[in-house]
Amino acid sequence: xxMCIRDRNYCEGNRFxxxxxxxxxxxxxxxxxIVSSSILKRAIEKQIIxxxxxxxxxxxxxxxxxxxxxxxxxGAGMLISVEPxxxxxxxxxxxxxxxxxxxxxxxxLLNQKKVETLRKYNHFIIICGHYEGIDARILEYVDEEISxxxxxxxGGEIPACALVDAISRLIPGVISDxxxxxxxxxxxxxxxxxxx
Length: 196
Hints:
Order of helices and strands: EEEHHEEEHEHEEH
Strand order of the largest sheet: 4-3-8-7-9
Distance between the termini: 51 Å
Strand content: 15-25%
Helix content: 10-25%
């Protein structure tokens, strides 16, 4: 499943360069609902960014498209195999030059300063972590692990969406110039004298 959003925020000479997000996940529908709403939806309509949602299960080499396996040497539970993720990554155009992020509770904590640092890149590959865990060899293929907080989620789809949203809103044209972080108020209702 794929959804495309075009981006034109970078300009090199007379040529626009895209900021591209490739998200690798087992649950594309979780991401589609978020990136097709609100500010990100308007970014799609204005052709400002590009997002590709890639189900890496489609890259499984197993007959039944399984993506997990038992941990080498035993131990409880299963692990997501690195193979289908790596194959999916290699199928992405210019993947070698993309900034590759694994969403992980053990990663660097995401804050606004970190988002502003990430903004300098124009191509991201975001791998959604999973509650089962991923074969540790995945770390050989990523630049950084990022966490959105001191808690554990069942998957990395929500952190991936947080990353895309936070980075995208720094792109010129995604949000209006009038947007502000100051406290704002609507007019009090005439019926509510306690607000007057």
